[in-house]
Amino acid sequence: MKKQPFSHRNLPGLLLQAREAVMAHTRPSLREQGLSDQQWRVLRVLGEHAHLPQGVETGRVAREAFLLGPSLTGVLTRMQRDGLIERSSCILDARRTVVRATHKGLAKVQALSETIQAHYAWMESELGKQKLAQLYQLLDAVIQLEPADYRVPEVILE
Q: So what CATH class is 11-151?
């Protein structure tokens, strides 16, 4: 019998499968709000930084939403068209673009955050508070294993 070429399970595949299991609960709510997964990731980032009156630079949005530049540009164009975000030049460096969620975009963040928080509460009740905390700790530890320059792609936009 031939030896298996891999001695470990497919960790990237398992992480993707776990992501899909979590997103299976979230996607219906996103679709009800007319959002794609990528649009939600952008709105979540902007919602987390809504306290910044100057907005968030597109490079930071790309890093925190895990989107590459060309994808982010298309997503932002559609979101601006739909009245979810507004873009403007950075006041400190006119070559850079900043993004802010509009009232409409923030309303979607608020509506979805309630649904998502309820899903996390359900996960906690199913797994237990300790196991969910362990999962977060293990994922943080795996992320920390990689050199900083590999963790999040650097993206130059506009």
A: mainly alpha
